[in-house]
Amino acid sequence: MPLTPEQEAEIAEARLHPRPTLRAVAEGMERHLYLAHPVLDHGFVRVIDYMGDDAAITQAARVSYGRGTKAVSNDEGLIRYLMRHWHSTPFEMCEVKFHVKLPVFVARQWIRHRTANVNEYSARYSILDREFYIPAPEHLAAQSTVNNQGRGEPLQGEEAQRVLDWLREDAARAYDHYEAMLSREGQQGLARELARMNLPANIYTQWYWKIDLHNLFHFLRLRADAHAQYEIRAYAEAMCGIVRDWVPLAWAAFEDYRLGGVTLSAKAVEVVKRRLAGEAVTQETSGMSKGEWREFEGVWG
Amino acid sequence: MPLTPEQEAEIAEARLHPRPTLRAVAEGMERHLYLAHPVLDHGFVRVIDYMGDDAAITQAARVSYGRGTKAVSNDEGLIRYLMRHWHSTPFEMCEVKFHVKLPVFVARQWIRHRTANVNEYSARYSILDREFYIPAPEHLAAQSTVNNQGRGEPLQGEEAQRVLDWLREDAARAYDHYEAMLSREGQQGLARELARMNLPANIYTQWYWKIDLHNLFHFLRLRADAHAQYEIRAYAEAMCGIVRDWVPLAWAAFEDYRLGGVTLSAKAVEVVKRRLAGEAVTQETSGMSKGEWREFEGVWG
Amino acid sequence: MPLTPEQEAEIAEARLHPRPTLRAVAEGMERHLYLAHPVLDHGFVRVIDYMGDDAAITQAARVSYGRGTKAVSNDEGLIRYLMRHWHSTPFEMCEVKFHVKLPVFVARQWIRHRTANVNEYSARYSILDREFYIPAPEHLAAQSTVNNQGRGEPLQGEEAQRVLDWLREDAARAYDHYEAMLSREGQQGLARELARMNLPANIYTQWYWKIDLHNLFHFLRLRADAHAQYEIRAYAEAMCGIVRDWVPLAWAAFEDYRLGGVTLSAKAVEVVKRRLAGEAVTQETSGMSKGEWREFEGVWG
Amino acid sequence: MPLTPEQEAEIAEARLHPRPTLRAVAEGMERHLYLAHPVLDHGFVRVIDYMGDDAAITQAARVSYGRGTKAVSNDEGLIRYLMRHWHSTPFEMCEVKFHVKLPVFVARQWIRHRTANVNEYSARYSILDREFYIPAPEHLAAQSTVNNQGRGEPLQGEEAQRVLDWLREDAARAYDHYEAMLSREGQQGLARELARMNLPANIYTQWYWKIDLHNLFHFLRLRADAHAQYEIRAYAEAMCGIVRDWVPLAWAAFEDYRLGGVTLSAKAVEVVKRRLAGEAVTQETSGMSKGEWREFEGVWG
Does CATH place domain B5-133+202-259 in 3.30.1360.170? Predict the structure, then answer.
């Protein structure tokens, strides 16, 4: 259970009292506010605040394009047009703030996205809780044999058991020593900023993370992708569900043009055109490397 | 009058119907929503949307510092502490979106602040309105004789009149030709993206501008400063009034530590200490250049 | 002629004396250093400094991927792999600084790219030169009749002449008044920060503009595109030639995957697959809007 | 020893062959190029590349301020003027790229500075080395009793020994299991992206880190400060020595105005003025909180 009873009570309290506002309100997002979506074994994502909705995107676009945009008769068409033509600034007009609880190794991947605002729990200042990510059996995957950066099938039998035991025991012992280094009867106590370095990367941390919709889409395109590490993808997928309810029109355009979209190189365009003209193109006659050809065939057969 | 009757009606309509939300609501900001604050002769600033309030700042800080922050008993003390120690990320948790109408030469200064989101009216796509900034007599200032980058007293008499006439006539003629180049019976019409280049820098443009509170404070510190050009300062001051109502505690801390604050160099600290010890320090014995000494005396006499 | 004889002499002088360095040196870029590439009637682009070369990109990638990257046997293959898979950070390891002289209306488009460092000539501090962009006859284009944001054929005959006369006369008069407002015998002189507002958007300004290669590629993809306004495209194309000589492998990958690449939506992928399977798909049966279909046919026929 | 003999040989080789360049060359920086400055027990900082020197800063400023800057007769005075008046863009014209080897818990603090380019060694792709930070006895500090976020005296005797033993043993065991989970005869081998999560935060990682001089100064001001955690300060101090040799004039201005500078709130300015006028001000009559007064007395006695 990722939340304490106190936190559950706080969330219930926060959802009790709607207040009047003159701002844009996204009904689909109000339903998510404050509620924790569980992710992994102890993590969660929850929305703390948001600004804007689908209409805020088109409103900003209409400031830019003035009278001209009236030609596009509706919001859906305009949003699809903006997404198709890589107009990023109207999507930047929506903003969202998440509270996320996540393992440190996931946080380290996540933070590579620099265009967001972050307040992370400080282990220099405070003491971390005893919570560690231990993969479920079906996610305890072997190293991929074809991809340096990927996973194969789940480990089985004795090997799986041994790995789980090590992960649990090492985490428990590291935390025991962390606590004992911090304070014990009759000792000075190691500085928190030093003691934390004994903790493994599967310990949970948490942060507030605030980002605009354009940059969030960029994050989701990379992290909800099948090539992303499962553990961060689990967070990205929870956020996809939230964004779908928040800005349904922008989400649909994103799904069509980005998540489901395919980018072809100039060479690949030529090969598809030759195929459309009836030619049987092989890797050898394609001008592509083997790696490119494998990826090309992954889409086009 | 910066707004058309249609715009006035739209604003009145937008303010008619509050809706319930579970988000943080800043009462002081709700009073400003959508309303245009007039700036210069045809410009305005108005709030289109906002996220967060004073409590959102301390809430984010408490995520970072965990139990530790409970030592600071109240929001005001914590916000002052954060501002004093240059903790910027909690202030990034608030966001605001403005609609601004402003002369192009002001927009060119403004846009140098890169950490904001912008949707500007496109003169490539649409036709600009016939509106130009003409300074009021008291702001038609002479070049400063001591500062390359400053103003002296207002121009007087015939010179003032001649300048105003030129500004008005050149703007009117440029706009007449702009219109005539775009369309006239029996002609093809110059592309809008080219015709706009005939327009002077005092023509008005408009944009949506969205920024977080930390970066907004940085903008206001530079642009509400006495050394900023009057025309951009007029906008910054209108925004100061809005921010004061939005996040009164953060504003008070900003006023004390930034707007009213003074930064001393290591050399200047030494001079103040010598003075406190009773020594009469002069420029010659201060180790400062003449320029630095003049600025030092401007604060300390 | 965009440069004064003094500037020409300074450039020649700067190119006279090579000095030894232990840094990476890109021979192709050394040939461009300081030299002005003329753009439009009075503008230019010139390289002032650069950091890194093709090898700097793969070197950074090899830090990231460690021993694993040895599988990719050569720099070219690795650079193509990085570009194909949207790995942006290795390309951020190269940096370039340009000196650009450009009309103000071009500068206003350009500055929308925020991830760069800029030092622009200050018309608040200094006096602008009397130089204005006047389009060559073949670029004095009519408004497109199908695209709000595009150009048609060049204006002809009397209309072309009238437009050119207005552009020239209005610029000349505006500048005469600018000068006269600034200083004239027996007058105070208007502040420079105010006088500049009488100047039209085709006056030339200049700046230093520094950017990393990843963000430069993003700029070039948008601004060297056929839909970009001709005047900014002229600068982008001059820069493309420079980048090609600087990092030839990265350039070739960029040309194949980005400039010549095509992005297909999920819907478009389906249509291409149906066509490959022999089906004759029309707009009606494609699931695309008319606008999308027109763009789709523009690529695929 | 932070470097392997192979790395030492590579560095020696890279320093053997200077090549001619027309770019600005900073002699002080050439002496540092590629050389590793040891930091902590296994870490280092080394310069991989740089762009610009002191003259590049003033050159950019002179583009901005045009003829006006000739009034400032020399580079030193101009650089001090720019630093004093918070002109950041000229300092952004210099760029530097470091290769840093550092413990993960230091990397996590460091990465909070978002305005830099980073390529970090990927533990998803490659296998980390068996290297852990173990504090020297004089840095094995107790938790501060007055500051939640600070250190007291070094631990002594048995407690010190026990902590060191735990740190060493837990790291060794975690790494043994990391290796055993990755591969062992007759097993599938856990995915690298999962196995890494067993490793503690004192394991070393490495990255390329590229940043402009303005943002580097900001980083150094915060991280070379006495309140920064010792371990990151050790890196910041090594970099201070490098920057001093690279841009000596900018460094001197930074030292005077930032590192040695003091910022006073409006209230603090009033108190100093009252003291200068002979008044004996106490906390009670100062209008400051106890915390502020303590900090104020820390500077002014």
Answer: yes
